[in-house]
Amino acid sequence: MSLSEPRVSGRPQAGADGIQPLLGPAGSRLPGGGEAQQLQRQRPRWGSEGRERDREAVAGESLAPGQMGSPSKNQIYLVTGGCGFLGKNLVQMLLKEEPGLAEVRVFDLHLDESMRHLDKVTLIQGDISNLEDVMAAVKGAHLVIHTASLVDVWGRVSPEKITAVNVQGTQNVIEACVTQGTQYLVYTSSMEVVGPNAKGDPFFRGNEDTKYEVVHTEPYPVSKAKAERLVIEANGRPMEGGKQLVTCALRPTGIYGEHHPLMKEFYEKGLSTKRCVIRAIPASTEHGRVYVGNVSWMHLLVARKIQESPSTVSGQVYFCYDDSPYRSYQDFNMEFLGACGFRLLGSRPLLPSCLLRFMALFNSFLQWLLKPLCNYAPILNPYTLAVASTTFTVQTSKAKEHFGYKPFYSWEESRDRTIKWLQEIDAQKDSAK
To answer: Is Coiled coil among the key words of this record (predicted)?
Structure first.
């Protein structure tokens, strides 16, 4: 679900086995395909009147009544993990839609040198798990957007490293904010904080208040849940000068869009199978996805609101959503890959579910067996298969009600921008032949 989240290094890891184009780490089963289509038609959508959105109108509707401008004027924002997939997009969004900012600091372990030329951007190299590095980056910032995260659901990274980055790194950001007097903290959490749980219970059109048994066993969702808890519990922490720390968290579902490393990996793996993808998950499954530009827009809006009206968003968590259609992971990816000549073979799964389970278990056994010799970490394992086979969709308006969120990009725009990027990659591949 959250494989598209940013890593602290800005380079998400990817599996290397041949089944990668078949299964993503997110997806879900919806009983009855007809019901899925009917509910999809009922889903509220924005931007259906045309692909060209009036950006100023959208931004204007998102401002609080009576507000004449953004509170970010002459402020300094810090984006941790700012060279990652989401982080870089967020930085670009801030530069475009918050022109009053004095500086946007980008803190990351591996810097993207192409960002160095951006006006108002300061690149800071550092380790999120090192308190001194974080303290130096936070000093003087008015607001921190903490997107840095190490995403690994394949066992490529030790649980200790995941905890150091995701949990200790988040604690470091909190301590730095309190010590340096930075009052506002927005945390990029994950839907995997909620689930799917280890039991495979469905989450169908749920909102932030939907009751769901959270049962995690894998290091990544455990770490994100702990980190989010730290952020929310830190809300209201006393600071010097009588101020209090104000925090909130956003939970994206699977993020997609141009420059998505995993989408590029799916594309490249598909080339090895002559642009044919074998259906492994029923078409009646569905999973919520959200466009990276809309996730960035939600971060920008909540960053405004947390300063304008702290009591509204303080200590709150919000699901990230837009009007991207609910589809199975494979069917959703084919919305983009299909434009590059890819074909999804089979209207029903061509691989029996028992065979997939056996392959996942066998991969897990091989990983254990080969651990002393090499880091074997295929994308298909019992956890990723369970996630891909479990219904997990959201239906909420909390972000709209609390800070006026509406998607900045329509589904049509989001799809077309992603397709254009993939077609450019495809053209480069053809020209290199």
So the answer is: no
